[in-house]
C-alpha cells in the first residue's frame, strides 16, 4: 500500500511541471454568449450598436487570449439575425441565432 502511494505521489510530481506549462495550442471554443452579454443597457432588447459593440469586444478578448476564431466568417450580421425586421433583437431571435451558430460551429481538431 505504501509503495503504491509513493508511486502515485511520484507520478504527480512528475506531471505537475508539464501541466503548469502554458498551452501553445489555441484553446477550443469558449462558452456561448448569453443575451445579457449583448444587451448593454439591460432593456430586454439588443440594438444594432449594442450587438456590434458586444461582438467586437468578444472578438478582441478571444484574440488576446490566443483563441482560434473558427466560423467567424460565417457569422450572420445583425440584419440577418433580426428576423422580425424591427431594428432590435428579442431574446427569442438572439437565442435562435445562438442555437444555429452552435449547431453549425466547426469542431476543434482532436487532440
UniProtKB/TrEMBL annotation:
Domain EF-hand: 34-61
InterPro entries (alphabetical): EF-hand-dom_pair, EF_Hand_1_Ca_BS, EF_hand_dom
Keywords: Signal
GO molecular function, one term: calcium ion binding
Extent of the signal sequence: 1-20
Region Disordered, residue ranges: 79-111
Coiled-coil segments: none
Record's compositionally biased regions (Basic and acidic residues): 79-94
Protein name according to UniProt: EF-hand domain-containing protein
Species, as recorded: Hydrogenophaga aromaticivorans
Amino acid at each position: 500500500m505504501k509503495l503504491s502511494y509513493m508511486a502515485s505521489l511520484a507520478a504527480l510530481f512528475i506531471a505537475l511541471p508539464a501541466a503548469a506549462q502554458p498551452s501553445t495550442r489555441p484553446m477550443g471554443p469558449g462558452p456561448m454568449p448569453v443575451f445579457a452579454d449583448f444587451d448593454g443597457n439591460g432593456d430586454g432588447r439588443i440594438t444594432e450598436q449594442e450587438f456590434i459593440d458586444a461582438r467586437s469586444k468578444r472578438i478582441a478578448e478571444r484574440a488576446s487570449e490566443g483563441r482560434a476564431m473558427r466560423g467567424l466568417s460565417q457569422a450572420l450580421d445583425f440584419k440577418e439575425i433580426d428576423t422580425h425586421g424591427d431594428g432590435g433583437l428579442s431574446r427569442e431571435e438572439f437565442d435562435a441565432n445562438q442555437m444555429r451558430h452552435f449547431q453549425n460551429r466547426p469542431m476543434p481538431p482532436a487532440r
